[in-house]
Amino acid sequence: MNIEKVGIIGCGLMGHGIAQVAAQSGFTVVALEGDQGALDAGLGRIDRSLAKFASKQVEKGKLTEEEANGWSAQTRGRISGTLELADLADCDLVVEAIVENLEVKNELFKELGTVCKGDTIFASNTSSFPIAEMGKASGRPERMVGLHFFNPVQLMRLVEVVRTDETDEEVFAAARAFGEACKKTPVSCKDTPGFVVNRLLVPYMSQALQMLERGDATKEDIDAAMQFGCGHPMGPLTLTDYVGLDTTLSILEGWVERYPDEAAFQIPQILREKVAAGKLGRKSGEGFYVWDGDKKA
Ligand SMILES: NC(=O)c1ccc[n+]([C@@H]2O[C@H](COP(=O)([O-])OP(=O)(O)OC[C@H]3O[C@@H](n4cnc5c(N)ncnc54)[C@H](O)[C@@H]3O)[C@@H](O)[C@H]2O)c1
């Protein structure tokens, strides 16, 4: 199963990165957005990221300025933008990276099922929804996988490749090979809540919040414990501020609703209260900590 042309739907935080790494690896990329402003913003992000990478190569003496500019122009030349779903019809692989809303995603996959050629592979970058439901919506469940990249896509080396009970083996192998071609380390996972990373990480964050709530330790001490005792780059409360308290809450709420008997999925009251107060973490300037841009104030 040969993948040459890749459609990326949604050119936001994740989609622009996936489009870029695919183009850097030689794939022809069509990036689809909902409106011209969002498309321009996504492509602009790619331009800035390529320029930054190219100038670093020059600084490090790995490429001359001419070579770096040539590399970046060639990479960018592989990416085109569109507002028309029909332009994805002949893609070998389509990766969806739109808003985390299952109804909206299902509607999109339903349309893709009518537009794309018969052997197109469908992938979702969802962090929390069952891949099988989108496969069902597309009408081609055997051609559906999860391709869960991590933020920032250009730097993070992991991609989780998710198979449902219905995913065709060849489709799964082709999706893994695509991840490898994008110079990521693919890990295979069944279609279970949170796949590998978020299934471990989100309950861990929830436990840390519950410790804080009970007054077992201060937020600074919980964070220091995991940073210096386990070698994590940041503690769980700082991490929750980074991820966004609203995002964390919405993942947990979805899981609690779907899997009410799973003891690891618990919503700390403190999380609900902070979100209700608009304290969403780094992006709103305050969560568990007060933020000044990317740094704790
Ligand atoms: N942000 C993260 O750290 C992260 C990590 C892994 C996976 N994800 C998942 O990736 C997906 C995208 O997240 P994001 O953070 O990039 O969101 P984002 O809001 O930055 O980007 C989503 C983009 O999709 C566009 N869009 C929305 N509906 C569309 C449609 N019908 N057709 C075309 N474009 C449409 C929006 O204009 C927006 O630019 C979500 O499913 C999210 O759960 C996010």
- Which structural class fits the helix and strand makeup? alpha/beta
- The proportion of strand residues reads 5-15%
Architecture per CATH nomenclature, i.e. the level-2 architecture of the largest domain? 3-Layer(aba) Sandwich
Bound molecules: nicotinamide-adenine-dinucleotide
Low-confidence stretches: none
Largest sheet report: 8 strands, mixed
The CATH topology of the largest domain is what?
A: Rossmann fold
Number of helix segments? 11
Element order, helices and strands? EHEHHEEHEHEEHEHHHHHEE
Which percent bin holds the helix content? 40-55%
Which strand order spans the largest sheet, edge to edge or round the barrel?
3-2-1-4-5-6-7-8
- Name the CATH homologous superfamily of the largest domain: NAD(P)-binding Rossmann-like Domain
From the alpha carbons, calculate the radius of gyration and give it in angstroms: 20 Å
Average predicted confidence as pLDDT: 97
Report how far the terminal alpha carbons are from each other: 51 Å
Number of strands: 10
**Can you tell me the number of structural domains?**
2
3D shape: globular
Task: Give the class-level CATH name of the largest domain.
Answer: Alpha Beta
Summarize the structure in words:
With 297 residues, the chain is an alpha/beta fold. It folds into 2 domains: 5-190, Rossmann fold; 198-286, N-(1-d-carboxylethyl)-l-norvaline Dehydrogenase, domain 2 (Orthogonal Bundle). Helices cover 48% and strands 15% of the residues. The protein is built from 11 helices and 10 strands. The strands form 2 sheets. Strands 3-2-1-4-5-6-7-8 form an 8-stranded mixed sheet, with helices on both faces. A two-stranded antiparallel sheet has the order 9-10.
